[in-house]
Amino acid sequence: MQFALDRLRIARLAVLPRRFGEWWLGEFLNLLPERIVEFLSGRGRTSLVVVTGEGHVTLEQLSSTRVPIASERLASSDNALAEIDRFLRSRGLERKDVDIGLRLPAESVFCRQLRLPVEAINAIDVIVAQDLAKKTPFKPEDIYCDHAAPERVDGNKIAVWQWITRRQYVHQALLPLKIDVAHLAFVVFDRSGEGQPAPFINLQPSAQSGNSWRQRAAVGLCCSAVFFALVAGGLKYWNQQTAIDRLDAQIAAISSKAQQVRALVDQLQEKKNALLRLRLQRSEKPGLIDLWEETTRVLPSHSWLIEFRLAEAVGKREDQVSIIGFSNAAPSLVGIIDSSPLFFDAALTSPIAFDATEGRERFALQAKVRAPDAFKETAAR
Taking Cα atoms as reference points, which of 270, 269, 276 lies closest to residue 375? Predict the structure, then answer.
């Protein structure tokens, strides 16, 4: 069972290049004018259909897409080939420039449909021939047959139409015309039903060269697609490598400047700390500006204040500062404030609450300011 599943997966993968080639070929042909597409694929030839009736013959000229262009009704069919030549010369054509076909009634053709798995797309001709021999009573020497499969496959099944007519029907229709079957390229029939393609039997295998041309073109375009993909990948890699080299040079230059800036920042910080120490040493106790600067220094960058208050001491009590603000880590601020030489006994005065508008924690904190003697001793250390 597993082996069968593996074979099915392999068969499905084998169909992908063909489907990609057909898609690529279709997109490529859509870029070209219709006349050039018809010339390349051999579909630019017009057709002449001979229709027999009781006591008369009708000649119909069809375009490459099988659309009627002109028609003429003949009263006699004694010399049909001469009438065909006259009809074509009147339109600037020769017999070698057109494909001559015969139209028969709808009851002269037998239509059948085969639904094949998509994995069988590369062996449709063989499968249809084998199925015709096994499931129908027709013998190859007694019939003309042909089939058509869709150029594009959607889903997991392929709908293949096959048409079969007896040779005697064709020969009986040609007998009063005195035309040999070798002059015919195809046989068409009146439509027998809706929802199915018009029956068409090709009598000249060489006319199927369009399919082989499509296969060769699809293979060639697949190779060109691979080539262009490799070229595009190489160009993209080269552009990325060039951009990386340019960025490396810029990063090296910016890193050198950043080191210089960092050195200047360190020097400024040292000078600021020295100035702060001088101010602390000269004052008997820190003032509001000193406390504000110290609070700004010790607070982390993710925290800021919306309120700062200094309550001066009354009697023997110490000065106190009250700060309110927002922070990403409010509980840690108690230890940070306590570690400062200017504050001690820091504590939260209200529960920490998350503020949805600011996206941070709101805190309210209170700390005592060190007494002058203790502050001087700390500053001296």
Answer: 276
